[in-house]
Design goal:
The chain is an alpha/beta fold and about 300 residues long. About 40% of the residues lie in helices and about 15% in strands.
Length: about 300
Amino acid sequence: MDDPLANVDLEHHNAVVDDVRLHYVAAGPEDGEVVVLVHGFPEFWYSWRYQLPALAEAGYRVVAPDLRGYNRSEKPHGIDSYAIENLVGDVVGLIRRHGETAHLVGHDWGGAIAWAVGMQRPDVLDSLTVMNAPHPAAFAREFDLSQLKRSWYVLFFQVPWLPERLLSAGGARAVGEVFRDQPANPDAFDDEDIQRYREAFARPGAARAAVNYYRAYVDGIGVPMAKATLPGLRRFFDPPGDTEITVPTLVLWGEQDAALGVGISEGLDEWIPDLRVERFPEASHWVQCDVPEAVTEELLAFLD
């Protein structure tokens, strides 16, 4: 498969943001509108290899970080280091390094962070795009036994030390299996792509950091979400994350997501007045790689 980044003048940078060193790549004219692309689990900046060239060519200044704990970024110790307020601070800090505001695009965990930025710091956003990441209030609304079965791994990740040991074993062999087995498009990830993901995840401390995202999530958000979803308690608790998002928002959703039901992408206008949703029946959780041309086209049209 041809390298989608072959003709991109890609810059590698490091920046200390919120006392943590983050590695990121950048491309496109320095005076262009800023677009920040935030990856998910178990990935790194390379997740945006299809969208990054098109955005740069369209004149945007594109910034794609390795989230704290991933690949070449610093891997702080402790579960609290991966609390959502720290992840939001990282993204806001990166935006501020490149201008006053930015278009923020997130997938999976990057999407969860993007939702939080949209609720907590709309002042730094020109727009918000989220791909296959649950809006917390919609997730609470849709959470049932079926979704619990889909989310089993989140509970497994609460076990001490074992999940990261299994994920990193054999040069992160389990990560390679994720990218071989889950995409709807068999050409979404070739052998070289998978090797890149395995090498990034096998870096010392990366597996522990990635799992700590889920541990911090359950500590900070999962418990109040559970209270809001249990039938006997629901009337006593407001769902988490029900703050209105005031910036223009695009949701792109692969309907063949093994971890998240399609219903989570529905009814979001309750919390987001300026909303556009596009669903892709032929795409999985890895929507930007399963149908890269369609995702890029929708993103460019939204940002224009």
